[in-house]
Amino acid sequence: MESTELTGSAVITRVADHEWHALVDDLVVGRGEAWRRHDGRLFLSIDVWQDALFDPLVAALLAALPRPLYTVVDEADSALMSRWEHAGFTVARREGVYIVPTDPRVTGLGPVRPPSGVTILPFGAPERNPLRDLDRAVRAEVEASLGRREMPAEVLPRLDDAVVTDPTKYTVAEESGRYVGLLRLAPVPRQPRIGLLAVRSDRQRGGVARALLADVLGSLHTSGTRAVSAEVGERNEAALALFETVGAERAGGNAELVIL
Q1: Domain check: are 135 and 225 in the same one?
Q2: Same domain flag for 60 and 8
Q3: What is the pLDDT along the chain (260 residues), one digit of tens a residue?
């Protein structure tokens, strides 16, 4: 599928269902892409060699794709933020990027044990079906409390049989045969990332989240990993407080923008 729009000396060409190229003299000087996250939302990315091509590339994507559309911008990149805002995007949510140490002497999590009756199941041990049930419960509770705009990207609101939750990426807290909390770790090169830390609403503020962090960070420290990263929404006060108590330091932030 291909559609072409002329803009000055550049040609904007749709080369695939969700990919566009900006061409000058048949050379690629810019790319625009759209990808759908597990939660169903379409996110855009623009990469140009010439600043003047940003607006026509965005215009081509906006003309072809259904709204709402989203993008993520580093908070330090004011020029890029301005370009997206000029195209009609507005900030929907902000999140801080934190570096979390793993050394229990720094985090203070060395003595932490799970609450009475709670067992921590390490990576690979959780069963898929109970893990899916917990994922659905977490998604519903986050949406009901913080709202859909604050839904972490790692929460999968359309989880079904076509999407398999990988138990090797999850550590789970189990109580009386029911999964009550989870921590998802993404194996990003050089520095793993905590993609999601969540506890069922009826078991929050009882030490389950700290126990999950203690188990995962302690294991990573033993294996030689000194720190992990985590992204926390600025409205999630409970998560912010938890990470700050274990010595996490803010290293930057991202803004999620949307056009309706």
Answers
A1: yes
A2: yes
A3: 454 554 557 899 999 999 999 998 889 999 999 998 867 889 999 999 989 899 999 999 999 999 999 999 999 999 999 999 999 999 999 999 999 999 999 999 999 999 999 999 999 899 988 998 898 888 888 777 655 445 444 444 444 433 446 888 999 999 999 999 999 998 877 789 998 899 999 999 999 999 999 999 999 999 999 999 998 988 888 899 999 999 999 999 999 999 99
How many CA atoms within 13 Å lie on the side-chain side of 167? 15
| CA nearest to 150, candidates 83, 74, 210, 91 | 91
pTM, two decimals, is: 0.78
**Half-sphere exposure at residue 254, Cβ-oriented, CA atoms within 13 angstroms:** 14
Which tokens hold the place of 60? 């081509």
Quote the number of domains for the chain.
2
Instruction: Provide the Cα torsion 159, 164, 167, 170; round to 10°.
Output: -40
Domain that holds residue 202: 96-253
Please report, for the domain that includes residue 214, its CATH number.
3.40.630.30
> Which letter, b or e, does each residue of 107-141 get, where b requires 16 or more Cβ atoms within 10 Å of its Cβ?
bebeebebeeebebbebeebeeebbbebbebbbeb
Give the residue from 60, 94, 128 where a domain finishes.
Answer: 94
Give me the half-sphere count of Cα atoms (radius 13 Å) on the Cβ side of residue 216: 34
The C-alpha R_g of the chain, in whole angstroms, comes to 21
Residue 36 token pair = 């759908």
- Residue 214, Cβ neighbours under 10 Å: how many? 22
Strand partners, 224: none
